[in-house]
Amino acid sequence: MLSVVVPVHNVARYLDICLESLAAQTHRDIEVVLVDDGSTDGSGDIAAGWAAKDSRFRVVHQANAGLGAARNAGAALATGAYLAFVDADDVLPPYAFEVLVNALEQTGSDFASGNVALLTDGKLTPSPLHRGTHRETRLAVDPREHRYLVYDRLACNKVWRRSFWGETRFPEGVHYEDIPVTVPLYGRARSVDVIDLPVYYWRQRPAGDPSISQRLAEQRNLDDRFAAVTFALSALDGPFATWYAETALQSDLRLVLEVLPDVDDAYRARFGKLANAFLTDVDPAVLTRLPGRLATAWKLTQDGDLDGLVSLVSSVRASAAPGAGMAAWRDPATPAVRATAADWVDGRLRIELADERLPLALLWLREGAPGNRVVALPAAGGSGTLRPSRLRGRPGWQPGEWTVNVAPARDAARAHVRVTEPLPFEARWVDQETLVTPLVRGGVLRVVVERPAVVAAEVGSDDEVLHIDGRGELAPGTLLHLERAFGVPSLAYPAVVSGPKWMARVPLTDLVAAIATPGVPDEPPAVWRVALGEPGGPTVPLPAGPRVTPAKAGPVVVDIDPRGILRVTEGR
């Protein structure tokens, strides 16, 4: 069972939609512990009403003691093998706990962390804080080998294994309770699961009703933020501690640095005192690894030159694009050559770069080992065109991955073509056995050649069952999985094997049960990717064969995702 702790304090405006999203979770084995923390606006009555109508909800009332104390009180009452925290003004998509718990059940990791979307005036946008940490799903990773994960310091986008959580407690009577808890737990964890799907909708309140994280210019927030970061650092040791110090100077502490032009002298003096105390415990080499202007800002802080610091921050803010964040502090560099499209035109792959006027000297693909071949592309203006057959070797088509490279002008440095924004790439079958797919890996545009041994050959349905028939050898006992996140099965069905063919049947009632009311109107429809795997083993995505066409099946549409993988999508 999963225990969900929800502190409640004067959030009557938002509480119902939050609790509705919890009641609609497709992971049904939950208990919701509502801790009414001395509310005076009727929030406690709303919480009690939910406990009266849904046996999975219960409410306790206490005098106002703050968010940390309310979370601790709820955790002490939780009885589940898994633990989660939700703030009462936020919202969850219906699949959130299903995906996180399923990941932990499969991997045995200490906790699972999902992507976050910002909820602003009813609209969802990606969280900039999680753009890098949750770019792709990674299961059972060691935080010491993926130290960038510590940039994700929220407690509420995670499910914790209770045996790992142990006697952990949130600090009480302060703001920024998450940092002193999540950062040390990253340091303790053997492995964590990272899910690219948004599992948490983090509400951004309007200007007249700001949340704690939106009130950076208040001196209490300044004190509590430094206290949280300092405590987290003291709980770590070795290289992980050094890395976290660097992270804090670029993230949490940079945020208070950036408000210095807007605050009074007392705030600035307090900032200088707290920052110098923190920097005293930081290895001086950390500053040398920061972007130049940010390193200068912290050096000015150490030197006590607050006037120079405010002037520098003002100039950085003035030259930055709105919402630039950390990018505003990075040193000027030669702009990367970026792709804005990689689409198919008349059977050829057209690669278009960001500036059509860019004079290209060279545009080419280089194959990874073992072939390591190079294919130059005809280029004109800011685009190049690839005839897929040029990737075919003398023995015929072979699986491989090709990296797209460019030299923007004669004698210019050669570089990879980067992709910084999501693009609608599409896989194409170039013959009955060969699939060619443009994709992004590590921020670099690549072209992958695949020769799938197993594919879906045909899909269809009757009134009660979705039929998926395939070709290719499967081991006895293979299961067909429907996955909301790659590698994290949600639904599984046996594949009945008959020589080089197989078939699987999915009851449409299962799909109906797995489709829940959206957490917010702007939420995208439910999607499952289809995969194959032996019981207890890893799964492999199932490509849709060249003859598969989209089909309506009861409440869903069966179609093909941009990678050429068979998928099932809620038919809204």
Automatic annotation (TrEMBL):
Q: Which GO terms describe its molecular function?
A: hexosyltransferase activity
- Quote the InterPro entries the UniProt record gives: Glyco_trans_2-like, Nucleotide-diphossugar_trans
Mind telling me which Pfam families this protein's record contains?
Answer: Glycos_transf_2
Q: Does the keyword Transferase apply?
A: yes
Q: State the UniProt keywords alphabetically.
A: Transferase
Asked whether the UniProt record includes Coiled coil among its keywords, one would answer no
Q: Which residues form the Glycosyltransferase 2-like domain?
A: 3-130
> What is this protein called in UniProt?
CDP-glycerol glycerophosphotransferase
Q: Which organism is it from?
A: Asanoa ishikariensis
